[in-house]
Description:
By secondary structure, the protein is mainly alpha-helical. Helix content is 91%, strand content 0%. It has 1 helix and no strands. The protein has one helix at 3-32.
Amino acid sequence: MIEGEIAAVHMGTLAMVSALAQGLHRLHGSSTD
């Protein structure tokens, strides 16, 4: 694999994890608000 491809996949994974974390955080936050 090319380093650029690895970086792209890594960034994509981080973005997905970040979006999931924000979604879960939002769910918990709405229940406590």
